[in-house]
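Students often ask why we bother encoding 3D structure as a string. The short answer is that it lets us treat folding as translation between two languages. Here is a chain of 367 residues written in the first language.
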Amino acid sequence: MDGLIHEMYFSGEVPGLYKVSPEFLLFKESVADGSTNKHVSQLFKNFVAESGRTFSKLSSEVNFLELELISELQDDLEAYRPVSLESPYLPFLSGLFVEDLQFLSGHPNYLLDNIRSFFGLYVFLYSAQLALNINEWESEPKSKPLYFILDTEKASLERKDVRKAFLWLKDKVADLFPVLSMLEYLNQPQNKKAVKYPLWQFLSYIESLSEVERGNVQRSMEIFCEKYRDKRSLPKHGEYPSDIVSMIRVLTGTAKEIFSRRGTSQFTVNSKFVNAFENEIAQHFIQARGRSGRVLVISQDYLLLLANLAVGAREKIQFQELLAEFRKRGIWFDRQSEQAIIKFLERIGNVERMSDSGDAVYVRKTL
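And here it is in the second language, the structure alphabet:
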């Protein structure tokens, strides 16, 4: 009997415990201990810490033996409250991540089946929206229109929003690494305990200072910019602007200038970053479509996951509200895709149609 239990749950040849309940994935933490995984993990932990939300124990649907294993593990677990080391750059999306994760924690079996897709989805959405917001730091970020189609749809040439989406996103991604690299210098990189802040929060804080204090910050930024340019062998900037907003534009412009010079190590690093975004982070959301080029797509599996997250704890929501929830998360569809989504959801049976009007179509979750 012991041998059978060991083979079922503890053998390295089978998923075993990892398929019983999400808690057992803790044992995989050391397996996935790469620098990229650690950075993403810390990012998500920061989201939870900033939200102040707490998560109750999971309650998976398991057999009596698995229940004993879970109880044994939970008895040894201690409450963990993550400490925020970085203020979220996109509060609108980090808040939704925590909200969605808390909803999924109430459905542990579904979470277990979709955990890789869930985190992969949010890594992509957060990276994409960060790129679209990185140059608009004069106010708090918001969801920017980024158009997708279902992976079963045709991307005809007249669908301009769909055709332009990928190229627009790729262009913005090229600015992401330069601006964030410059921001690292402002975030006290030598102080490991210092909380990191987004650029738009820096501006908000500086604008709240007195005129004398703003003047001191202005001079500090000028000194930093001269050293920054000199270290990268760029010519002196010349006369600096007298206001903070324009000064920050000079800093971000300098960063982009540094990383755009062909033949330099900085250009190579940024090119690798853009390629990594395309080939790793966004790989499940990009397809080549003939004359339309590459477009952003959502697979049916991701669409179902998104629909379940959008409906959340509610029993059902109107279709237009579903689309609004998608847009909050950074996913936009044109009218053709909206009709394709309705047909797909009707086909799987989680739609109630009261009339031909979109407002009279209700969507249920599949949980």
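Translate back mentally: The radius of gyration is 24 Å. Keep this in mind for the problem set.
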